[in-house]
Every structure is written in structure tokens, then in C-alpha cells.
Amino acid sequence: MPKAHPLYSSRGLFLHIPILEYEELGYLLEQQMDKEFYIPSVQQIEEICGIGYAASSLAYKKLENFFLRKMDMTYEHAVTWCLQVWANSYEGESPAEVMNKMSEAGIAFECEKQMNEFAGLLMDAHNDTRMKENRGHTPNELTRKEKI
Fold first, then answer.
1. Domain that includes residue 118, residue range
2. Is residue 47 packed enough to be buried (19+ CB in 10 Å), middle (13-18) or exposed (0-12)?
3. Total count of domains within the chain
4. 79 within domain boundaries
């Protein structure tokens, strides 16, 4: 039901607010194709809901460590950028978008070597992120399944 015509039940108001526009839904369904749904564990759900990203993942631990040690960020700042990487990847955006957002935020790399190291860690984190277009699977998991 659209916002203008809500439904009422014994438990209260039911209101339908579309999250995806029609074109976005079509694209998402096309990307998901016939992939199986990933069913997360209770621990994974709690981690994503509590922290906001897969902080226990080795790829995200390395990324967080890079932000702390190589970029000299505070813990809160490092976690914020890890969350940004996760959200960006989950939504299906390219890793380059994170680099653009960092640039817009005035975060600069000391040298090309540092930027290349970050790019590698960013790609590792991206490929280890559960994505909605993959029905919750990571790109790494899908690649392994294809090889089998």
C-alpha cells in the first residue's frame, strides 16, 4: 500500500514505503539471477547489527590495522572508514568510490606505495563483503563455487 493509503491491523499501522525504485529492483533481480540465498549465523548477524560490518573478518582486521598504523587514524576514525568500505561494497559500489570519498574528506596518502597497499587491502575487504546483489554471498565465495 502506498503512503497515502495505509492499512490498519489489530497490531497497528502497516505502511508500505518502497526502498528501491522500479529500475533498481530490476537491476538487483538481474544481478541476483539464480544465486542461492546465504543464511548468516547468529554471530554474523549480531556482529553486523552491533558493529556495522564484519569486523572479525581477516580482510577487515587488516584494513582497520592499516588505518590505525599507516594512516595514523584514531580507532573511531578507522572503524568509521571500515564501515564505509563495508556499506559501499554491500551496496554494490566500486572500491574506487571509497577512494573518492576519502579524497573528498581530505584524507591523503603519504606516497604511492601507501596508496597501492591501501588499494590491495580495499579490494580484499570488498571481495570479503556480503553483498545484496549476491544474495549475501561474498565475491570470494562465489569465485570458489565457480571453480568447483
1. 40-147
2. middle
3. 1
4. yes
Amino acid identity of residue 148, one-letter, is: I
pLDDT at 130 over 60: yes
**pLDDT one-digit tens code per residue, 33-66:** 778 888 889 999 999 899 999 999 999 999 999 9
| Residue 122: count of CB within 10 angstroms of its CB | 22
The model's pTM = 0.77
Half-sphere exposure of 45 (CA within 13 A, CB side): 5
**Residue 13 in domain:** no
Q: How far apart are CA 112 and CA 138, in angstroms?
A: 28
Contact residues for 92 (Cβ-Cβ < 8 A; gap 6+): 31, 131, 132, 133
> Hey, what's the cell of 38?
546465504
- Closest residue by Cα to residue 60 from 39, 38, 80: 80
Does 19 reside within a domain?
no
In angstroms, the CA 87 to CA 92 distance is 9
Give the C-alpha separation, 128 to 72, whole Å: 24
Q: In this structure, are residues 117 and 127 in contact, taking their beta carbons and an 8 Å threshold? A: no
